[in-house]
Amino acid sequence: MSPSLVVLLVALALLVVTNLPRRGRAASYKDADHKGVVVYWRPGCTYCMKLRTRLRFTRLRYNEVNIWADPDAAAFVRSVADGNETVPTVTVAGEAMVNPSKSQLLEAVRKHTPHLAPDTDRPTKS
């Protein structure tokens, strides 16, 4: 198999995997925990893929809401993003952040919902 074909297959696999909602995290706008962390995303958004992939390596508990599958979520995102469906949009205890970095999101979690902040100094339990 040629190296370029391998790269193409890996890129395709990453595209598929990062566009799937995580098991146990997918929610609708109505069912999401608005007192915690909610990540609003849409399929195909490279910024969403980047943030969601980076969050998978943290212990942060959060809900994911696909704005293309939920009109209420899309309306909420437009209400906090100047009428645009700019994603990822994240809420932390109801405070909206449009296209935050992982570090900005984790800082907001430490500030507004410290009980949800991932404790990276503690080893994982086996």
TrEMBL record:
Where do the Glutaredoxin domain residues begin and end? 37-95
Recorded GO terms, molecular function? electron transfer activity
- Give the species this sequence originates from: Streptosporangium carneum
Lineage, top-rank taxon, reads: Bacteria
Q: What is the name of the protein in this document?
A: Glutaredoxin domain-containing protein
One of the GO BP terms on file: cell redox homeostasis
